[in-house]
Amino acid sequence: MTTTLPATLRAPFSSSGASAIDAQLANRLLGLALEAGGDYADLYFEFRVSADYSLEEEQVRTLGRGITLGLGVRVTKGDATGYAYTEDLSWEKMAHAARIAGQIAAGGGHAPVDIAIAAVSTPSFYAVPRPSLVVPTPDKLTLLRAADKAARAFDPRIVKVQVTFAESIKEVLLFTSDGRMATDIQPLIRFGVNAVAEDHGKRQSGSGGGGGRYGLEYFERAEHDAIAHGKEAARVAIAMLDARDAPAGELTVVLGPGDSGILLHEAVGHGLEADFNRKQTSNYTGQIGKQVASPLCTVVDDGTIVGSRGAINVDDEGFTGQRNVLIENGVLVGYMHDRLSAKHYGIEPTGNGRRESFRSMPLPRMTNTSLLAGEHGHEEIIKSVKRGVYAKRFSGGQVNISNGDFVFSLSESYLIEDGKLTAPLKGVNLIGNGPDVLRRVDMLGNDYQLSDGIWTCGKDGQSVPVNVGTPTVRISSITVGGTQA
Amino acid sequence: MSGAQVTEATIKELCDIAQQAVELAKKAGAEDAEVLVRDGSELTAKVRLGEPELVQEAGSRALGLRVLKGARRAVTYTSDLRREALESLCKETVALAELAEPDEYALPPDPSLLAKEIPELDLYDESIADIDAAWALREAKNGEAAARRHDKRVTNSEGATWSRVLGGTAFATSGGFVGGYRGSYASLVVEPLCDDDTDKENPKKRNGYWWTASRFLDQLEAAEAVGIEAARRTVATLGSRKVETQECPIVFDPEVARSIVGTLFSVANGSSFWRKSSYLIGKEGQQIAAPIVTIIDDPLIPRAPGSRPFDGDGLQTRQNRVVDKGVLGPVLCDVYSGRKLGRPSTGSAGRGIGSNPGPTTSNLIMQAGSVSREELLRQTPRGLYVTQMMGFGFNPVTGDFSRGAQGFWIEGGELTFPVSEVTIAANFDEILKRIDLIANDLQLRTATAAPTFRVSHMTIAGTSRS
């Protein structure tokens, strides 16, 4: 199965495009980039078409569309990077960017060599037969209306609904001075519903949504259809109307399957990105082979999950997406690498070198990060808790890589009393220390779920789409940041 | 590299492009069109452990177009500014607008309301454009070296980064507005790292930072001073620990105080009001904060980071009192949200390339109090002094606020040991009303700014009470 696109959605630099970039031209640019003595250079061409739609107050309010085109040139010399980019793909501008990036190596010049460039054979984790961008707009607006209607119909106390749909196709073409050429077409969709409920002066909001590297066939599965997302947003908003103040202090916390992976992403994921370890700025520096989590925990970063938001056929440095085990039965076995860190550690890159766009250099980044399943039933885990918090939905998180402290925000949670879910709790944060919390994981469910594609990860000002997954997780004790001391 | 200079001629050129695009959109069938053009360049120079780690240098241009046809609208953007590319963009945008539903509120402002004069706010420093990568690397290196020299407990570094952005903005509308301006901004941040072996079982790294920033080169603090302050702040966090769960006074350092002011804006703007996404709806003219709190949004301060001579609708900008002695003023509105609420714009529209206008802040400033920071601390027998917050725990609809915090424990009016891994929580309404002391240490390094202030009590969640 392959992706076929009309000419308007193909990059001008692709082999069929108006200003095709071939290996010969790439060779000349790489030669200029290395003229001042760089060790390595790459060229990253990107073409991105995106569109977004928003419906509010039962009306289609805004339609938007944008096109981005550019080239990023990177040159490295030792651990130093020179980076430049241009949106103008004329020879002079590209050559200028190559020279500017190359200045990082100023000093020992050498004559450019002729590089034998070979195409990287890429897998296909998101072959979309019909990208949503080629589907007529009215078909997409139908989905927005269906979600809006479903949310309103859910309960008369729903007073506001906003539905958004964003879609994009990104085409990349990469050449490296060690002879790699890679090309990829990356579709991405994201559907979101936000509902506000109002009852006797009390107001609450809820959200639902999903997406991934799919076309509109994503909506054909019942749990993913527009109506289901609309209902889910309304359900959360209504449920939260009865929310009471959350407790403050250390409690047992049970994390629901799926979205809870965001805790994993914050608590351990970032600390295992190899750049932080290469620079010895992470808590996990020098911990390979050591017990860093409860023996129940096996953590995997997997860029090969078909259709998932974080899937990548090829990373932004020319290495194919891979499944990498990071922690096995609680023992740290590996980091996520980009070229620079892989070279430092003397190992093969792991397919985690990603960048937001041609305007930024690649960094080691997560793809789809999961905590694998255990053996307990979901109910069994809830029943085991005398007093605690059940965390069902999350609105985001943040970590301090150096000391491992993380915070993550619950948008839907419940008090657990005597093994049963009782009152919904107002929005609250959990705060903990990554290594510390992973040691306190004492039960894992057999109900692993991949989250439904809504996460975007930020690092050094660069955003990339990612995904997360977990089973039900019990943490014996973590600080809950409520107000009821 | 003087090629980075944004000149008056550049602004004129951007204005011409914007006006041409308005004409092309009208030719393509738009009844109204608004065009924003930006031209910017960046230089980032990062040093780590004395060696260059990154030099990034580039310029870029982009154009954002909003068209209206029969009150139907569409918004598009492109980085391809060639005439033929703009022609086809205009046609596509008009076609896209035809698929939207009409929204009378989205029509452009009445031409009589558009800004007639564009004040000169002195936002651009040519000497920043003259900085080259070598100079920037040297500054970064000096900052980092000062931090490492200052205290031997600084064992590692996340680096030091000197960066600058230069930009030109032009905006033109079919209602007859055309205007442009240029701006510059430079900064240096130093990020030292320490090894913390206080807890032998679980040794940690402790990071910290300090920074300087300004639109004018000669207003930047010296690199060495920035490095020394960064080292002092980082070393001070060694041995951080949790404290017990309790209610107590919370003092916000300016670094986090401004984020409280930013959070207030997220619920004190016309967009959050008509979307019913604010706990402040219906409270304009009422006491929403302690009477000592005054917060002003002022776009007309010369040389300030958030100043702008006209807004994203093409209206004249003006000072707005968002909170006056604790009373909520009219919330900040652009034309659209103002119409949705049945009132005029406050001249607060912001607009990005490829987005609809919406209310934004310019220089949003909590006014300084009269006591010094030292005096404020002296008057605080015990409590938590917060220097950093983490996470996004704010619900605009209910005002529930809970965020991760780190800082120092206050005992006997002095900072004692460092604290981390706790959260602070209260309803935002309570936080604002409980502000009982404001210091006089206001600085305008950032567009949103506040002095040190104290909240009489909030809940700290930490260890269980023994």
Topology, element by element:
The complex is a heterodimer of chains A (485) and B (466).
Chain A: H1 23-34, E1 40-56, E2 59-77, E3 80-86, H2 91-102, E4 118-119, H3 137-154, E5 158-176, E6 180-199, E7 202-212, H4 226-240, E8 248-255, H5 261-269, H6 274-278, E9 299-302, E10 323-328, E11 331-332, H7 339-345, E12 353-354, E13 363-364, E14 368-371, H8 378-383, E15 387-399, E16 405-417, E17 420-425, E18 428-433, H9 434-439, E19 441-444, E20 449-450, E21 456-459, E22 462-465, E23 467-470, E24 473-481
Parallel strand pairs in A: 4-6, 8-15, 14-23
Antiparallel strand pairs in A: 1-2, 1-5, 2-3, 5-6, 6-7, 8-24, 9-10, 9-14, 10-11, 12-13, 15-16, 16-17, 16-18, 18-24, 19-24, 20-23, 21-22
Helix pairs in contact in A: 1-2, 3-4
Chain B: H1 8-27, E1 32-48, E2 51-69, E3 72-78, H2 83-97, H3 126-129, H4 133-150, E4 154-173, E5 178-196, E6 204-207, E7 210-214, H5 223-235, E8 246-252, H6 254-267, H7 270-274, E9 295-297, E10 320-324, E11 327-328, H8 335-340, E12 349-350, E13 358-359, E14 364-366, H9 373-378, E15 382-390, E16 400-411, E17 414-427, H10 428-433, E18 435-438, E19 448-449, E20 453-461
Parallel strand pairs in B: 8-15, 14-19
Antiparallel strand pairs in B: 1-2, 1-4, 2-3, 4-5, 5-6, 5-7, 8-20, 9-10, 9-14, 10-11, 12-13, 15-16, 16-17, 17-20, 18-20
Helix pairs in contact in B: 1-2, 4-5
Describe the structure.
The complex is a heterodimer of chains A (485) and B (466). Helices cover 19% and strands 39% of the residues of chain A. With 485 residues, chain A is of the alpha+beta class. In chain A, helix 1 packs parallel to helix 2 and helix 3 runs parallel beside helix 4. The model of chain A has no long low-confidence stretch (mean pLDDT 93). Chain B is of the alpha+beta class. Chain B folds into 2 domains: 232 residues, 2-Layer Sandwich (PmbA/TldD fold); 227 residues, no CATH class. Chain B is 23% helix and 35% strand. Chain B is built from 10 helices and 20 strands. In chain B, the strands form 4 sheets. In chain B, strands 1, 2, 3, 4, 5, 6 and 7 form a 7-stranded antiparallel β-sheet that branches. In chain B, helix 1 crosses helix 2. The longest helix of chain B has 20 residues. Chain B is globular, with a radius of gyration of 24 Å. The chains are: A alpha+beta (485), B alpha+beta (466). At the A-B interface, strand 2, strand 3, helix 3, strand 5 and strand 7 of A face strand 2, strand 3, helix 2, strand 6 and strand 16 of B. Strand 3 of chain A pairs parallel with strand 2 of chain B.
